[in-house]
Write a structure and sequence with these properties.
alpha/beta, four-stranded parallel β-sheet, 10 helices, 40% helix
Length: 225
């Protein structure tokens, strides 16, 4: 994803049609991808007015699709086995370089390994000891960051990762505003929030299951018209 972000940054900078500014909409993992674009090169681009993400994995995913903490019986055992495989393999060199999903896998019980070996998400979330202030400045420069979470999402685990929420290492999902990422403003989200530009939205149903009519009304007419 890092190479793709760099390529898109170059392509957008060369598009003279965008000189008056533009909006971006990211679907699923495209949400954190476009956020990385804003953070890494927003200062070199025409103004990005709004970034809208639908079902993004902004705080990563901690399990395989369909595996939640309330499962029991055989399903719970199968998910536990898959979780062990993920924990052992997600940060292996070949996997992390070639499997996009591994670049936003985040095991709340192995945060040390995540910070050390994940090549994408810890950087764009400014989670390492040395912070990149440009990331926060660029994201805070948006007029709006709109985060849509799907109400019955079982693909993104936990589903509230779409709102920057994540597990505390057990079974509690910690909201964004209670995390250092927000309280210490690693990404400029607190600044954006205080300016009225951080918007949390819900979408009905499962991951990325919406109609064109819903998209037109809730996304285009509400935020892009």
């Amino acid at each position: 994803m890092n190479q793709q972000v760099a390529r898109v940054c170059g392509e957008l900078a060369a598009m003279h049609e965008l000189k008056g500014g533009f909006n971006m909409v990211g679907f699923s993992q495209g949400g954190q991808f476009l956020r990385a674009v804003v953070q890494r090169c927003g200062h070199t681009l025409p103004p990005v007015h709004s970034l809208i993400t639908l079902g993004g994995q902004h705080q990563g995913v901690a399990n395989t699709p369909g595996c939640s903490v309330d499962l029991t019986g055989a399903a719970a055992k199968a998910c536990t086995a898959m979780q062990l495989l993920l924990a052992r393999g997600a940060y292996a060199p070949w996997v992390r370089e070639n499997i996009v999903q591994a670049q936003y896998f985040k095991d709340p019980l192995q945060l040390g390994a995540y910070l050390r070996y994940n090549i994408f998400l810890p950087d764009i979330n400014n989670e390492r000891d040395v912070k990149n202030s440009k990331y926060a400045d660029n994201l805070a420069a948006l007029q709006r960051l709109v985060l849509f979470r799907f109400d019955h999402d079982t693909t993104v685990v936990p589903r509230d990762s779409a709102w920057f929420s994540f597990w505390d290492g057990a079974e509690t999902v910690v909201p964004l505003r209670e995390q250092p990422l927000y309280t210490e403003d690693w990404l400029g989200l607190q600044r954006l929030d205080k300016a009225g530009g951080l918007i949390f939205e819900s979408a009905p149903g499962e991951h990325m299951q919406f109609t064109l009519k819903w998209f037109e009304e809730r996304v285009i007419d509400t935020y892009l018209a």
